[in-house]
């Protein structure tokens, strides 16, 4: 690594040979912080993500233009000897390689980790796959939708009397895996600096989801408890959910302590709810979940969204709107934090 600017990852070169979202998102994160990420695409169409999603006038999709930002691009056929030779020459001059092919693909191409290490002993290899590089399912294909189910998240999403659903229409497993992958690369680069030896980072889509399941593992391991779907509720805190306002919009409201619920009860002009023999404690509220949810629904249902949020804010009760993307674009908090930045895609000149 050679420092060339003040960016945190200046001088780090990364070869991104992955496709679609997960490992390429690791590359996007690293590039955003100054790494020189070279995106290597196979001939005959390149990364399928170019055609996946909403198309633009240049032929590439919005998700491609977003996740390919800050990267350089080259076409190289890794399946032929000439392509492999050129790739290994790049490996010799790089710090990390990102791939997310089905396990065994790199080995079939003659680009296993030992071969990469011969070209560069310090090379870090990030491998992202559906089920990981080991285990009986290692060769099975899979995408984020499958990982949400296999990782245990879809079982929790949805109404108690309805089917399991996905937690929104975004590829959560891909993006979470990309975050883990970027972290793994940074940790492995630190080891390489100290020891001169590279490492393999093995990330699976399902494990990235599985790690998000708070106390489900110890709860089942110790007590045999299997959490079921609760809609917008959570199992151990009441009230904690979503309620509809007078104009048909929705707010999220969370009372994670007895004190906060006391504030809410007085705000709703329902001090009876926090009487010692009613719902003053969370244990009492868990037993009275339906009555409390109904009381909040009746109160919020008489208020428009802005008033409901303003009243809760003034009383110190955590509450916020459930935002669609048009709401996000209009919100001053997003503007103040610079969360939305408009630019022109270099190929299509598409505003992004």
Quickly list its features.
Rossmann fold, elongated, 38% helix, 352 residues, three-stranded antiparallel beta sheet, formyl-coa transferase, domain 3
Terminal Cα separation, in Å? 32 Å
Structural class: alpha/beta
Q: Report the C-alpha radius of gyration, rounded.
A: 25 Å
How would a crystallographer describe the biggest sheet?
Answer: 6 strands, parallel
How does CATH name the architecture of the largest domain?
3-Layer(aba) Sandwich
CATH class of the largest domain: Alpha Beta
What fold name stands as the CATH topology of the largest domain?
A: Rossmann fold
Q: How confident is the prediction overall: mean pLDDT?
A: 95
Number of helices: 15
User: What's the arrangement of strands in the largest beta sheet?
Assistant: 3-2-1-4-5-6
**In one word, what is the shape?**
elongated
CATH superfamily of the largest domain: Crotonobetainyl-coa:carnitine coa-transferase, domain 1
Strand-residue fraction?
5-15%
Low-confidence stretches: none
Task: Give the tally of β-strands.
Answer: 9
Task: Give helix % range.
Answer: 25-40%
């Amino acid at each position: 690594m050679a420092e060339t600017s003040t960016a945190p990852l200046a001088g780090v070169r990364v070869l991104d040979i992955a496709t679609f979202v997960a490992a390429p998102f690791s590359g996007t994160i690293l590039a955003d912080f100054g790494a020189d990420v070279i995106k290597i695409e196979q001939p005959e169409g390149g990364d399928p993500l170019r055609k996946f999603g909403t198309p633009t006038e240049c032929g590439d999709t919005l998700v491609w233009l977003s996740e390919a930002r800050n990267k350089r691009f080259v076409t190289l056929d890794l399946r032929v000897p000439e392509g492999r030779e050129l790739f290994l020459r790049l490996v010799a001059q790089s710090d990390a390689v990102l791939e997310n092919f089905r396990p065994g693909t790199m080995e079939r191409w003659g680009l296993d980790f030992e071969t990469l290490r011969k070209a560069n002993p310090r090379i870090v290899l990030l491998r992202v796959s559906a089920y990981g590089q080991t285990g009986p399912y290692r060769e099975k294909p899979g995408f984020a939708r499958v990982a949400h189910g296999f990782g245990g998240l879809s079982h929790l999403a949805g109404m108690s009397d309805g089917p399991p659903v996905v937690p929104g229409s975004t590829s959560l497993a891909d993006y979470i895996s990309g975050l883990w992958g970027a972290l793994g690369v940074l940790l492995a680069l630190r080891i390489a600096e100290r020891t001169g030896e590279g490492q393999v980072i093995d990330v699976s889509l399902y494990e990235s989801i599985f790690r998000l399941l708070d106390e489900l593992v110890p709860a089942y391991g110790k007590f045999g408890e299997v959490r079921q779907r609760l809609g917008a509720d959570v199992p151990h805190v009441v009230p904690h959910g979503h309620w509809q306002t007078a104009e048909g919009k929705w707010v999220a409201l969370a009372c994670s302590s007895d004190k906060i619920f006391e504030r809410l009860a007085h705000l709703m002009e329902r001090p009876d709810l926090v009487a010692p023999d009613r719902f003053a404690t969370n244990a009492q509220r868990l037993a009275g979940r339906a009555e409390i949810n109904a009381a909040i629904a009746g109160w919020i249902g008489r208020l428009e969204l802005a008033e409901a949020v303003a009243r809760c804010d003034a009383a110190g009760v955590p509450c916020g709107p459930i935002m669609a993307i048009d709401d996000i674009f209009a919100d001053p908090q997003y503007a103040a934090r610079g969360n939305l930045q408009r630019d022109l895609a270099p190929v299509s000149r598409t505003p992004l």
